Amino acid sequence: MSADGFDVVVVGGGHNGLVAAGLLARRGARVTVLERRSQVGGAATTEQPWGPEFNVTALSYVVSLMPPTIVQELELARHGYKVYPQHGYFAPYRDGRALQLPDDPSRRRDQIAQFSKADAEAYDRWDSWLGSLADVLGPLLTTIPPRVGSRRPRDLVDQLQLAWRLRRLGVDGTADVTRLFTMSIADLLDEYFASPQMQGVLAVSGVIGTWAGPRSAGTAYVMAHHKIGDVGEGQLGSWGFPEGGMGAVSRALRDAAIANGATVRTDAPVARIDVRDGRVRGVTLESGEELRADVVVAATHPKITFLEHIEPALLPTDFVERIERWRSRSGTVKVNVAVDRLPEFTAKPGYDPEVHGGTIVLAESLDDIERAFQDAVAGRAAGLPFADICIPSVFDPTLAPEGKHVVSMFTQWVPHTYATTQDTAALDAYADRVIARVDAVAPGFTDSILHRQVIGPYEMEHEYGLVGGNIFHGELSPDQMFHMRPAPGYADFRTPIAGLYQASSATHGGGGVTGIPGLHATRQIMRDRRKRGRRSRH
Ligand SMILES: Cc1cc2nc3c(=O)[nH]c(=O)nc-3n(C[C@H](O)[C@H](O)[C@H](O)COP(=O)(O)OP(=O)(O)OC[C@H]3O[C@@H](n4cnc5c(N)ncnc54)[C@H](O)[C@@H]3O)c2cc1C
């Protein structure tokens, strides 16, 4: 570790800002994190909207994608980071049947065979294909994208190094990756599965957080992105519930940053990133307070960083245009409720930890999901929204009093325009439809509800800084990935301003509670400082 001591301001105390703060502080930087809200965490937050009885994981709800290297280096376990593994899918249907995908291969085969014997046979092929892709995509996620197309010698070396790493893909592997990045999840699933039940349940992860239906190009990758995770068990795509909700992940990151010497300030909104002669000088808070720094890490949405915090005249025009064009829509609505008992599913009466502690999917078929998207495209909140539901209090007693539970429902779609002009009545009616959909497969659910919280695109943008309501700071579409994230030439966590780095989810490796942007930004900053150090010695 170098300990040359330099001043860093991190703008935004979301989990990525906190990862960068902790890692930079460990490397000897004097770090101050400035967070606009009264608590850190951004979209990884636990809140008490109904008083102290219930702790609600308000937006994001499961972890998977954070690399063990971050967890270990920041000693997050010491700061309270603990994950309960989540069980597999449970998809109950209105006709009283259900499809469950447990980890045990033989039980899983029987479950799928209820609907299609051919699909039951196809599942292992699908799983091993995904496994082989994750072997490639996993390391790519932890690679800093080179400046593709640049002819500068240093950039050419980076491009060649990437090509060399990818050589083992071969012709077939390259074709698979190309297909994955460009296909729709519908076309991909069609190659393996025929039953509406299997297509429906597996299509959901292709459209999570995306302004695209399952028949839109690029959704195959979104599915893969959600399968790459690892909670440290070495298992592909295993997800888990952090004890204390997602806010506990942020708290552990905050405490790790502080333990390493960083200062974390809340209620500290930044108004401006200060730049002089093409180099960052620090920031000015909305209060007028100025902080000077050698390095500023912008961990906020790129439209906030580059269109609000920096004078556009100080940035290249084409870069500003690209950020203006950055697409950040989702149409996602989070519906959280507190209940006085667990839902009892017609298809599986009684308590079953694999059901209640799994991912409960409400989507009867892929057509069902596509229709929900097409409703929103036509300007209406979906008539039959799909939902990805979990009940973390099944494992985690810190979230609700005994016998009561918090139910987290991730749903889509309402029109993405709700981010600017919300139709509150339509949003409430939409949430009613989500709840009625649960009631149709678990009668009595509506009556069990004690409290409800509905967070739509408007709140996501205005309260949480998720511009446009996109849950990943920018759509995971093929033209916004890897060296294009968030702009070509600047996917390496640098920016057009010397000393200003970016670490939001809109950079490569972001999209979920991954911490990878915070990790990459740290690596890039340290690399640049080493280079500067070498130059100044000569
Ligand atoms: C409904 C929903 C469900 C999701 N579910 C999951 C899930 O289950 N699992 C998963 O892995 N991911 C999930 N995600 C995605 C994941 O939560 C995000 O991608 C991730 O948390 C973003 O982290 P970040 O640090 O990049 O940005 P953010 O969390 O957005 O943090 C940015 C921070 O900057 C602050 N800020 C903004 N403006 C200023 C300013 N002017 N001055 C100072 N601070 C400022 C904000 O208040 C915020 O705290 C979900 C997201 C949503 C919205």
Describe the protein's topology.
Blueprint (H helix, E strand, L loop, with lengths): L6 E5 L3 H12 L3 E5 L11 E2 L8 E2 L10 H6 L9 E3 L3 E4 L5 E3 L4 H9 L3 H25 L11 H14 L3 H13 L2 H6 L5 H12 L11 H9 L12 E3 L3 H14 L3 E3 L4 E7 L2 E7 L4 E3 L2 E4 L3 H6 L9 H9 L6 E8 L13 H4 L2 E4 L3 H12 L8 E5 L14 E8 L11 H18 L3 H4 E7 L1 H6 L37 E3 L13 H22 L1
Parallel strand pairs: 1-2, 1-13, 2-9, 6-15, 13-19
Antiparallel strand pairs: 3-4, 5-8, 6-7, 10-11, 11-12, 14-17, 14-18, 15-16, 16-17
Helix pairs in contact: 1-10, 1-18, 3-4, 6-9, 8-9, 8-14
The site of flavin-adenine dinucleotide has 40 residues, from α1 and β14.
Tell me about this structure.
This protein is α/β, with parallel strands linked by helices and 538 residues long. The chain folds into two domains: 7-44 and 63-82 and 243-325 and 475-537, FAD/NAD(P)-binding domain (3-Layer(bba) Sandwich), CATH 3.50.50.60; 87-238 and 329-462. It has helices at residues 15-26, 68-73, 105-113, 117-141, 153-166, 170-182, 185-190, 196-207, 219-227, 246-259, 302-307, 317-325, 353-356, 366-377, 424-441, 445-448, 457-462, 516-537; strands at residues 7-11, 30-34, 46-47, 56-57, 83-85, 89-92, 98-100, 240-242, 263-265, 270-276, 279-285, 290-292, 295-298, 332-339, 359-362, 386-390, 405-412, 449-455, 500-502. The protein is built from 18 helices and 19 strands. The strands form five sheets. A seven-stranded mixed beta sheet has the order 7-6-15-16-17-14-18, with helices on both faces. The protein starts with 6 loop residues before the first strand and ends with a helix. The protein binds flavin-adenine dinucleotide. The site of flavin-adenine dinucleotide has 40 residues, from α1 and β14. Residues 11-17, 34-37, 42-44, 59-63, 65, 269-270, 299-300, 304, 332, 334, 410, 460, 465-466, 471-473, 504-505, 510-513 line the site of flavin-adenine dinucleotide.
